[in-house]
Amino acid sequence: MAGRVEGKVAFITGAARGQGRSHAIRLAEEGADIIAIDLLEEIPGAPYGPATRQDLDETVRAVEALDRRIIASKADVRDYEGLKAVLDAGVAELGRLDIVAANAGISTQMAPSEELDEAIWHDMIDTNLTGVWHTAKAAIPHIKAGGRGGSLVLTSSATGLQAYPNVAHYVSAKHGVVGLMRTLALELAPDMIRVNSLHPTQVDTPMIMNEPTFRLFLPGVEHPTVEDFEPASQAMNALPIPWVEPVDISNALLFLASDEARYVTGVALPIDAGAVVK
Ligand SMILES: NC(=O)c1ccc[n+]([C@@H]2O[C@H](COP(=O)([O-])OP(=O)(O)OC[C@H]3O[C@@H](n4cnc5c(N)ncnc54)[C@H](O)[C@@H]3O)[C@@H](O)[C@H]2O)c1
Question: What is the pTM of this model?
Fold first, then answer.
């Protein structure tokens, strides 16, 4: 049976681990070839370790085990020219581009707005907002050139629809992604290129599974553990679960990327266990 994105090519940023790796595997399972990039560097101010070359190699291994092709490179979404160069090379090799998962993102210092460091603020906007625009800007000419339409899926967050204290830089960037998504949806509709955004609640990835992030949810606890974090995280969701898994986000991406969503554009889709309506 043909897969849901059979014969298509997907560009995925932040693909070394977490949701990005899950996206690569899920799309490959349904027949897509993959162009993957990741920073593979320390992120200043991040309370968690960087993705590594070994992580990206593991994504490659998993996609190749599904008999799909993958071209994986080190690139930085903040660097438009570098990003464009690796995407251009990937499309030259795989022959087309249909799907974009603008997934790369960071989580850094957590503090009241007046205490946020200037450099940390700018780096957040450069990565989580400008990086998404760079990804779209580099990809759009390739999708248009195919003349078959396509699907851009921008990763925002529940924090892109609702405010939370002590992460103004993250909340601002993720809200900005919604404005970008809606604008692109209008601009690209004549070419049958659809643009939507994903809004996850907490996802079980290295970005949140660390003590400083647990402390954001449990400010009174000095060394919170994952067991302490679980009920606090669950309290944010309407459904009685503490977090979702990367594949839950990948399944939403797959739907939006597939022809099943052929007339869905301009939509901000929460995969949030009801966090935003709570
Ligand atoms: N984990 C959560 O709870 C959660 C919730 C809502 C939204 N998100 C968003 O989901 C996306 C994926 O995050 P994740 O949970 O998989 O975390 P993660 O840290 O496991 O993965 C993010 C990946 O992006 C890469 N990256 C960071 N900066 C980059 C840059 N400048 N250029 C290229 N790659 C870069 C990292 O190296 C890493 O591999 C992010 O946009 C994040 O903000 C995460």
Answer: 0.98
